[in-house]
Fold these 2 entries.
Entry 1:
Amino acid sequence: MRLVLLGPPGAGKGTQAARLIARLGVPQLSTGDMLRAAVAARSPIGLEAKEIMDKGQLVSDAVVVGIIDDRTDAPDCAEGYILDGFPRTVAQAEALDAMLARKGQKLKAVIELVVDESALLDRMRKRVEETIRTGGTVRADDNPETFKIRLDAYRAMTAPVSAYYKASGALRQIDGMMSIDEVTAAIDKALEA
Ligand code: AMP
């Protein structure tokens, strides 16, 4: 099953993706995680992406489309995957459609987690507190200033992706303000339909 998880930073995409991989047995493909790994490995893509990510801006469409094109060819993606954080622009959504058509594949659904913007900054702060509490490394872009830029990028570049999938009939909008379990249940229901 091939799914897209759509929603602003802090909407709960990562949390829900973790639950979906356990149930569906397909990998989560997070372009953010892959880019952070590239930054940590100091690969050419990582070196190019680091500054852009630290500023809260979007990495070029060509780079992330290339990453997804390669990654989805891996054997663990044969039964499907959950895209988390991709596509983030209409151009990426179009490239994904073209890639799927080329590979003779289809998306099952695009799940959008719809969340009040006023709640997002607070969720990001809680994520930072939790990361510190558990001894993890706080993301360089998880600070209030950069988070605002990431939200601006979402509004300008990613919100139109929702309209793109609405037009194609693939979009399933879920109230992301519900409890984590309620959101999971709503996603399950949407996938049954
Ligand atoms: P995320 O972990 O999804 O919040 O992504 C962290 C950062 O990685 C974003 O703020 C962007 O700089 C970059 N990024 C992740 N996915 C994409 C994408 N699909 N297109 C462009 N930039 C991306």
Entry 2:
Amino acid sequence: MTDIDTLIANTIREDVRAGHSYKVPDASGYIKLDAMENPYALPADLRDELARTLADAVLNRYPVPSYSTLKQKICAKLGVPAGYDVILGNGSDEIISIVATACARQDKRAVILAPTPAFVMFQRSAQFAGMDYVGVPLQEDFSLDMPAMLAAIAEHKPALVFLAYPNNPTGNLFAEEDVVAIIEALGETGIAVVDEAYQPFARTSFMARLPEFPNMVVMRTLSKLGLAGIRLGYLAAAPALLDQFDKVRPPYNINVLTQVAAEFALDHLDVLDAQAASLNDARTALAQAMAALPGVTVYPSSANFITVRVPDADKTCATLFAEKVMIKNLSKMHVLLANCIRVTVSTPEENSVFLNALKASL
Ligand code: PMP
């Protein structure tokens, strides 16, 4: 009989065996403030209309492989400049992996560089693609350490630099001139991926500047805007670069239901934008309320979450958990995040449950 452990040792690569899967805690029964989702559903009349549209989706066929209607709609409605196009991913997670796969080399270890703490998939995708990952610590106020970034770029010559704008898990926007200096420092040797997952809340973007920087690409997602369940990310870039990324994209990676739902949502973007605007108001209120609490440091956020430092993050998370509120404890993620927690901005009701539990934990 085959021993399964021997089989695994003989087949699965060592770093995968030593690693762990992306952990997502089960949140049933909890107020879920750990994953930067939009708490609002589409209004009932739009959901009915969407259901009728989905009923007509052609499920017995593969998707139309070019996705041209959806792509055109994204370009037209989401500010992709003329002459530029998008590639689609099953969430921007898949796009990170596509870009890494395209840049990983067989003759030497290519490098992904990112300021840290950063979105964890930058590092994981580098590892899985067989690339080296270089993390350059942010400064204590979570701004970019520009001398360190420029030195690391000169030393490691990264093929890819990921800059989340705003950054996750810190919530802040990096200074625009710093981002530009990094793009310029990379020149012809590296691609800067500006990850604008939280752009609906930041209300600022590098998208319009694509023509200025041939080595910059802009990645976004519909997840934070209110469609996390359909898994759709996109990357805007010059067609010549997109052609390369498209070669490693799995065929039919966007399913028909996602395609139909995304096209529908883009026709009703005003509804999602209004939800984002109200979450931005709620963010201001929540940040102010937390800042008034003793021992709590609130970091500036341009996203739909807020990162705060509390006296004892483990205790705060345990109290919130007991009150059925799920947030993210960032403490062990990075030295800069000691005793930091991250909370998604939600409805006024959920924010107030969170706030009361936070107060109780202090
Ligand atoms: N980029 C950043 C900065 C993120 O925080 C996230 C999700 N938390 C993603 C990309 C991935 O988003 P998705 O796969 O849902 O598009």
